[in-house]
Amino acid sequence: HLLFNEALKKYKLIENPRGEADAYRELAFIFQKLGDYKASRKHYEKAFVIFKRIGDSLNEARTLYGLGVLE
User: Fold this and answer.
1) Cα–Cα distance between 40 and 44 in angstroms, integer?
2) How far is CA 56 from CA 24, 31, 52, 66, in A?
3) pTM for this structure?
4) What is the reported pLDDT for 4?
5) What is the DSSP letter of 14?
6) Phi and psi at residue 45, in whole multiples of 5°?
7) How many of the other CB atoms lie within 10 Å of CB of 12?
8) ∠14-28-67 over CA atoms, to 5°?
9) Residue 44 to residue 4: CA distance in whole angstroms
10) What is the DSSP code (8-state) at residue 33?
11) Disulfide-capable partner of 47 in 15, 25, 35, 36 (CB 3.0 to 4.6 Å)?
């Protein structure tokens, strides 16, 4: 997950919210697979807020699906 963290930093630096949200969602998936559900939820929620802000309904839905799997 170190590469996704690096990607996240770069997306923030270049102010690319879609890339930032994608990185958060990928990190959420990784944390989910590692069994760290608290970290997973935190990253899914960050991704969701960004997708909602930029009007990306498809990825909002995909992120909600990921959150739903955690329930």
Assistant:
1) 6
2) 15, 23, 6, 16
3) 0.89
4) 83
5) T
6) -65, -40
7) 13
8) 120
9) 14
10) H
11) 25
> Would you state the structure tokens that stand for residue 11, as one six-digit string?
């997306």
Length of the chain: 71
Query: Hey, what are 10's tokens?
Result: 């770069």
Please give the pLDDT value at position 5. 84
| Cα dihedral 22, 25, 31, 34 sign | negative
| Alpha-helical regions (H) of 1-71 | 2-13, 17-34, 37-54, 57-70
Assess contact for 52 and 60: CB atoms under 8 A. yes
Q: Show the tokens assigned to 13.
A: 């630096």
